[in-house]
Amino acid sequence: MEGQSLKPIRCKAAVCRAAGEPLTIEEIVVDPPKACEIRIKIICTSLCHTDITIWRVKGENVIPPLFPRILGHEAYGVVESVGDNVEEFAVGDAVVPAFLGQCDSCSSCASEETNQCTAVPFVVGPGMRRDGTTRFRDSQGAPLHDFLAISSFSQYAVVDVNQLVKVDPAVPPPLACLLSCGASTGVGAAWRLAKVKPDSSVAIFGLGSVGLAVVQGAKMCGASKIIGVDLNPDKETIGKTFGVTDFVNPSQLGGSSVSEVINAMTGGGADYCFECIGVSSVMTDAVRSTKPGRGKTIILGLEQDGKPLCLPSLEFLLGKCIIGSLLGGVKPKTDIPILAQKCMDKDLELEKLVTHEVGLQEINTAFDLLLQGKSLRSIIWMDK
């Protein structure tokens, strides 16, 4: 179905009415796609720490609170209908959304140095990228704010053509879902951004799902020493199933700093450090743990309180480098299909990130599991 003949769809969605409150399952209305948009049926979605961050935002913050809202951005679905001027997708295509666009026409998309499209730039604020309006309404007709122009905690969602990626339908839905954000972010940070070299040393600060995906990316690239850093002692065993070779618990160092321990383990500093938590003091530790002359620190975590990253200039005079990361440097339309094939070929074992599966009605259970540190990724099946 295409163009003006399309009609609104009524469906179920998990709506966040206020910061930190349980989501409510409501009947909502999803408007038809406009030009250059696609409406997709969400088969499954998953809960990312970014969703948690937005869900509990109150008052002044890096990201302002905005409710009522439909969260979710990591998902797998099929095309239900397309708007005008859409040639790349057809009804029935298996797809995943991405919070970064890729138009393949602007100078940024043509560049090997960035994955941040300038034609459809990344924004955290609400509204579709092209017109700033929402495609969601509640049962009373009131608008519902979206998130990252995706909002996958709904059985149907409207996505810009530049934010949608076609995937092989043979890829298992949970795996494709993970590749739409967290898994690609982690693997891509090692593979695309840092360009980890064989026999190199790597330290990953924070072994949540993104950090463990970095572990998989570093292993895929041939790193010989992969150090996991986490305060949770249980993460040592978990990390080693993903490829961690050494583990550091900052609370058990007997007065030594994390950087001192990593410098000793690596003969002067790791070649690459990845900060996957979003705490400025940990970012500082990561930079101090890299090797002078060529060490790279990749920042994947968002400092939620807006605290600055403070480092002496000597760290940079020594030739160390800090690189910021959005989606791990991955160009969605180009790289997500490549990563999906690597998973199918068993070069990556990202399916191990899935620890729980629930239905849409149990979505608050997925929140509880993540908040309690009992899950990595929970897959939420939209029709269960």
TrEMBL record:
It is found in: Cytoplasm. GO terms for molecular function: alcohol dehydrogenase (NAD+) activity; S-(hydroxymethyl)glutathione dehydrogenase [NAD(P)+] activity; zinc ion binding. It catalyses: a primary alcohol + NAD(+) = an aldehyde + NADH + H(+). Its cofactor is Zn(2+). It comes from the Eukaryota. Residues 37-168 form the Alcohol dehydrogenase-like N-terminal domain. Keywords: Metal-binding, NAD, Oxidoreductase, Zinc. The keyword Transmembrane helix does not apply. GO terms for cellular component: cytosol. Residues 210-333 form the Alcohol dehydrogenase-like C-terminal domain. Its main location: cytoplasm. It holds the Pfam family ADH_N. GO terms for biological process: formaldehyde catabolic process. InterPro entries: ADH-like_C, ADH-like_N, ADH_Zn_CS. PANTHER family: ALCOHOL DEHYDROGENASE, OS03G0189600 PROTEIN. Belongs to the zinc-containing alcohol dehydrogenase family. Class-III subfamily. Homodimer. This is Uncharacterized protein.
